[in-house]
Amino acid sequence: MIIASVFVFIIIFLVVINLPVFGRLPKGERLEKIHHLSNYKDGAIQNLSVTLMQPEGVSFFEVLRKFLFSKQPNKIPSHALPFLHPAIKEAQKSSLPEIIWFGHSSYLIKVDGLRILVDPIFSSTPSPFSFIGSKAFKGTDFIKADDFKDIDVLLITHDHYDHLDYQSILKIAPNAKIIITSLGVGAHLERWGVSTNKIKELVWNQSVNIFDSLTFTAVPARHFTGRKFKRNQTLWSAFVLKSSAAKMFLGGDSGYDTHFKTIGDEFGPFDIALLECGQYNELWPYIHMYPEQTVQAAIDLNAKVLMPVHWGKFSLAMHPWNEPVERVTIAATEKQFPLITPKLGETITVGISHTNDKWW
User: Fold this and answer.
1) DSSP string covering 90-109, please?
2) Are 51 and 255 in contact (CB under 8 A)?
3) What number of other Cβ atoms are within 10 A of residue 82's Cβ?
4) Which of 29, 42, 288 is nearest to 184 (CA)?
5) Strand, helix or coil for residue 115
6) Which residue(s) pair with 308 in the sheet?
7) How far apart are CA 280 and CA 290, in angstroms?
8) Which residues of 38-73 are buried (b: 16+ CB within 10 A; e: fewer)?
9) For residue 9, what pLDDT is reported?
10) pTM as predicted
11) Cα-Cα-Cα-Cα dihedral of 75, 277, 128, 117, to 10°?
């Protein structure tokens, strides 16, 4: 009886972990390209600097215990967050790029008459199953994946669930003209039925020009990847976006390191830097930035203005939900660095000064 129960459990387990939501690891020619990366070593892609998942002397189980059982007040907003109805279908009002933030790291860029959607997650949880993980804050469901039927460019920075959302991809990718992402992520997309012909995978410092006016360049970030048990089998990237009117830094996820200064020296200055600001903790200090480091990263990049993202929709760490924006505002003020903190759904125009209301 025990043997039969174990056998059934193993079968169920194998079925569950092979569900489409988990994606698929790279193989064939894609895997060969990964193996030939200069930073591929010991069976995995490496960061430019040695990057531990947690500090020395801290075990994974200690991190898990504190994450699951620590009591932090104000992790979830006590009220529905305010939002503006986003002008996602309206044309640009000028030649300058426009950005609409939807919470977390999802935003729409209108530039050169084209629409670029970055890391869309419109599911209720950033996890493989809706009953696991943090629920999206009340008020953040003002936009749906179904609202994006004719995207010109879908940009995916890496394969984590809060950036590569299975349900959103199923609805958005079929009608997206081009998908730009990091090397290896295409394996997930292909398993989900996305045409290989529309997928463009980049390695660090590789560029692609599309629609005769946009150039995307993948650049290093300090992070990791993985949707099941094996980490760092696909690449993670930030992206430099150059258009006819502006140059933007699209940061994805990254811990702080010297790569920001290197990128700023080579590709800057930037008209705007969209950088992660949230989901940090002393138990994982190398793979996400503290808000003060976010400001310093924008300075290193030689950006003209900072727009903090990766907050405002999910609670994936132990800090209060609005602590990231409070801290980044203080840090930017101390450094006298321009900061923009738009409301959810608000359209901001790159290159034009904005008044920041503390709506949070």
Assistant:
1) SPPSSSS-EEEE-SBT-EEE
2) yes
3) 14
4) 29
5) strand
6) 275
7) 6
8) eebeeeebebeeeeeebeeeeeeeebeeeeeeeeee
9) 36
10) 0.94
11) 130
CA distance 331 to 254: 18
Core vs surface per residue 338-350: b (16+ CB within 10 A) or e: bbbbbbbbbbbeb
The beta strand positions in 223-337, using DSSP E, are: 238-242, 247-250, 272-276, 306-309
- Summarised one tens digit per residue, pLDDT across range 186-211 is 999 999 999 999 999 999 999 999 99
Please tell me the predicted confidence (pLDDT) of residue 3.
Answer: 42
CA distance 155 to 346: 20
Instruction: Give me the helix-helix angle, 291-300 and 259-267, nearest 10°.
Output: 30
CB 155 within 8 A of CB 182: no
Structure tokens given for 319: 């800090």
Q: Which helix (H) or strand (E) holds 16?
A: helix 2-17
Torsion of CA 294, 300, 302, 307, to 10 degrees: -10
Taking the C-alpha atoms of residue 253 and residue 196, their distance in angstroms, rounded to an integer, is: 25
Give the integer Cα–Cα distance in Å for 306 and 273. Answer: 5
